Amino acid sequence: MASFCSEKTIMSKIVFLLVACLSISSAASQSVPPPKLSTFASQYTVSWSTDHVLVAADGSVQLTMDQVSGSGYASKDMYTFGYVSTQIKLVGGNSAGTVTAYYLSSDMSSPYHDELDFEFLGNTTGQPYILQTNVFANGVGAREQRLYLWFDPTADFHTYSVLWNKEIIIFAVDQRPIRIFKNNVNLGVDYPNFKPMGIYSSLWNGEEWATRGGLDKIDWTGAPFVASYKAFNIEACENTNGAGNCANAVAWWSGAAYQSLDATSLNELNYVKRTYMIYDYCTDTERYPQAPPECATN
Ligand SMILES: *[C@@H]1O[C@H](CO)[C@@H](O)[C@H](O)[C@H]1NC(C)=O
After folding, report:
1. Strand pairing of 158-164 and 168-173?
2. Which residues form the signal peptide (predicted)?
3. Residue located nearest, by CA, to atom 13 of ligand 1
4. Structurally, how many domains does the chain consist of?
5. What range defines the domain where residue 178 resides?
6. pLDDT over 90 (residue 22)
7. Over residues 159-171, mean pLDDT
8. CATH no. for residue 62?
9. Which of 1, 71, 86, 189 has its CA 20 to 30 A from that of 218?
10. Is residue 2 included in any domain, yes or no?
11. What is the spatial distance between Cα 8 and Cα 21, in angstroms, rounded to a whole number?
12. CA 12 – ligand 1 centroid, Å
């Protein structure tokens, strides 16, 4: 009797694990076409500290940071609407105080700039990274969301992507949507809908705020810190000088199938939010006694 019971317990654990694993590995039905990979050098340049950026023989790129400097890269061109992805393996070990950013931004010197951010906030050894996302439209940001990832982002490469068209912006991790920002111009909310954006990444010192709100500082004995990148993919409407007719361009990322999340992807987004989200500006009533208007639709 006792052995039957313990067997049953083990079986139910196995079933539970199977179900849990299946629900995490099922790809979104709204999948995107396979990436059109290109070399780092054809699409990007080093924008900060050449001697801290290493382009390896296999085409992967390492951003490094030590006490002298962090580092970064930027796309050569700018784009309006598209699909952008790369694979990143984040700083391992004690990465407290380090911030790895991967983002799209229009001209940052303008107070009316648009920006779509992934920011990975490092942590002490064994403690979870935070993935913070933010959306700026016409200079208005302060739309942070934060989540823990469902894997260790320092153990291997994972794909981080942004799909951007005139109706919706979809942030995804390994094709799983983690955030959307819809065009809510009709609610009086600005939307990034024409300014060309470049694609950027950087590794920098954020110890004043990044890890446990700034309590954990950078431990420089672990330097240099390294974030690795590969599988560079930009499929987007080039608009470097702002003269491109990207609003009317015919492209898969602007097609009807990608102007909203389908039911499966919406379920996935809701699952991720329920399970992994630790902060959402939409529910921060101290900051926003009345939730910003876009919150009801995103
Ligand atoms: C770091 O780990 C602590 C303790 O587990 C956690 O509270 C915090 O959210 C983690 N992430 C960051 C970036 O502070």
Report:
1. antiparallel
2. 1-29
3. 211
4. 1
5. 7-296
6. no
7. 98
8. 2.60.120.200
9. 86
10. no
11. 20
12. 32
